[in-house]
Amino acid sequence: MLIDTHCHLNFRAYRDDHKKIIADMKSRNMRAIVVGSQLSTSKRAIDFAQAHPETLYAAVALHPLHLHSMYVNEIEMPFTTREEHFQEETYRKLAGEPGVVAIGESGLDYFQMPEDMSESAFKNQQHEVFAKHIELAKSLDLPLIVHARANPRNYRDAYDDVFAILREHAYQKIVMHAFATHVETAKKFIEAGYMVSFTSLVTYPEFPTLPDLVRYVPLKQMMLETDAPYMTPHGKRGSKNLPQYVEIVAQAVAQMKGVPQGRVEEQTTANAISFFRL
Fold first, then answer.
1. CB-CB contact of 243 with 4 (8 Å)
2. Is there a contact between 120 and 69 (Cβ–Cβ < 8 Å)?
3. Distance CA 44, CA 120 (A)
4. Which of 55, 79, 153, 190 is the most exposed place for a label (fewest CB within 10 A)?
5. The total number of structural domains that make up the chain
6. Domain extent at residue 87
7. How high is the pLDDT of residue 74?
8. Is residue 4 helix, strand or coil?
9. Has this prediction a pTM greater than 0.70?
10. The 195-198 sheet, strands edge to edge
């Protein structure tokens, strides 16, 4: 059994084909965590999890990009965000719904900054809301799915800030989603005992540092994800990603670590079941 620990079947990209995708997932005996990025998609994640409790789970949170109204120039699927204020008690209530297994995704995203804010104000707002998510997860004893994306000119700024905030709030049930950094930056996350999750970015030739990172991270601290509809595996780029493609991530990780694919699938699945209490 494979578990995609982070996908967005609740997004508009799957409006017309989510039923077919979920039926195929059931036929493959695979599971997935459907992750919210704002109030509306968090609610939809819960709806999906409750409609398919044997296959899907939910995570709820406010993504840092949704703190501002801005155009986000994602390579595969550009979109425009709507500004939302973090309503802690609303998200606390959602987190108590059946099927919710985590708070997420929340964190820091410095990839693109709005034109109507200073850099310091932009970062301070993200730091404040991220800290509130950590405390919410801590108070509920739920895992926290953490998003970190650095400025294109500085591969470690968001990771350094995320790590500092996590240590300040002293919470251990952390998974670094879409982990993609250099080994020297990754070391402190691994030594802190956090989990990390790899996407099909590990299949992209333009990320030559990721094989070293995959080889460095112990299997016992690793999970797999697709982040679908984003980050489609290299051989399938040009189409939207699918939770089923988590198998391609497993295959790439196995090749990089020089171990059988079955071992990667078995260990990462066991890690996900334990970490998210599935």
1. yes
2. no
3. 33
4. 153
5. 1
6. 3-276
7. 65
8. strand
9. yes
10. 3-7, 31-35, 56-60, 100-109, 144-149, 174-176, 195-198, 222-224
